[in-house]
Amino acid sequence: MKTRHYRMSGFVLLCLIIVYASCSNVQHYEKKMVEKDRTIGELQHLLAMRTASISEGRSLLDRTKRQYEWLRMLNADTKWDKVVVRRFVGDAEARTITDPVFLANIGALLHLESVGETDFPSGYQSDVGTYVYELQKQGEVYSVQVVHRGVIQAAANELYFEVDGSVHQLGVAFMPKPAFLKHDGLVSKMASSGAVKRGESYVQFAPFRVQSRVAPLAEGELLKGAPDQAGERLEIFTFYYYGQQLLMEVYADYAHLTGDGSEEWIGLQDAGTTLLGEAG
Predict the structure, then answer these.
(1) DSSP-derived secondary structure letter, 279
(2) What are phi and psi of 26, to 5 degrees?
(3) Which of 70, 97, 99 is nearest to 83 (CA)?
(4) Half-sphere exposure (CA, 13 Å, Cβ side) for 258?
(5) Residue 248 to residues 112, 115, 194, 255, 262: CA-CA distances in angstroms?
(6) What pLDDT is attached to residue 197?
(7) Are 233 and 254 in contact (CB under 8 A)?
(8) What are phi and psi of 146, to 5 degrees?
(9) How far apart, in Å, are the Cα atoms of 8 and each of 14, 17, 18, 253, 279?
(10) CA 222 remoteness from chain centre
(11) Are 57 and 107 in contact (CB under 8 A)?
(12) Which of 49, 105, 117, 249 has its CA 20 to 30 A from that of 275?
């Protein structure tokens, strides 16, 4: 009888353990669900705030465009007749851009995304060079100033507009290089350029795209001179480095670099494939 009693007690104990474990699992699950619901609620609140902020920003931008009608021209579809680049108002070393390939792509840099007022008492503290762009269209001239990475000032002194993060690169491409900057060698200068143009097809300003165009050259071999038979030239890239134009001619297994009084031949297997590919 004692044995049977012990077995029964053990069975009851086992059932209690199972029930307790089940209750613990249920409580744990319920706790997780409560935490998950709280997280979802917080995310929904943040999304609602962000949506409201975007809506308010668009509304302000629309009102600003109604006040300053010419701001509607700052969009990706505008092809300017001419663009003058300066480091500051009245800069005697201004550069004028008339290249159709550039003029067809500059509009994307100036596409207005939002408008706001600066929180800094003396304006934005820029980590990039500040530039003034004079945009000309059908005899009219409109001026904008790059004051920060992806921020321009236009229309009114207290208004700042968010645009493409590479908007300052136009100044890097055409204005003289600051004295404190040092780049040794053609590859280094190309990688630090403000723009790269592929043939006469298009131009790119984003730093990572400029750098990715020459990055594969690091795997190549610097030759002492031109190869006996380089073959047919497949493409030519023009890099715009602080007012200088540096060229990279691409062949099946070679790259020919020229500019700034220098010349280099680099052997690179499958250069025609590697250098002509587009970065993701």
Answers:
(1) P
(2) -65, -45
(3) 97
(4) 8
(5) 33, 39, 15, 6, 12
(6) 98
(7) no
(8) -80, 120
(9) 10, 14, 15, 84, 72
(10) 31
(11) no
(12) 105
Going across the sheet that includes 262-267, the strands are: 202-204, 195-198, 235-241, 244-250, 254-259, 262-267, 221-222
Q: Could you tell me the CA-to-CA distances from 63 to 33, 110, 146, 214 in Å, in that order?
A: 44, 18, 22, 44
Q: The tokens 């004079």 sit on which residue?
A: 134
Q: What six digits make up the tokens of 178?
A: 């600051």
Q: Which residue, among 160, 132, 6, 138, has the nearest Cα to 71 in the 3D structure?
A: 160
Query: What one-character DSSP code corresponds to residue 232?
Result: -
Which residue's entry shows tokens 């500019």?
259
Residue bearing tokens 């108002």: 89
**Residue 261 — left, alpha, or beta (φ > 0 → left; ψ -120 to 50 → alpha)?**
left
Answer for the pair 74, 154: CB distance below 8 angstroms, yes or no. Answer: yes
What's 253's DSSP letter?
Answer: S
Angle at 15 between CA 12 and CA 16, to 5 degrees: 90
What DSSP character marks residue 41? Answer: H
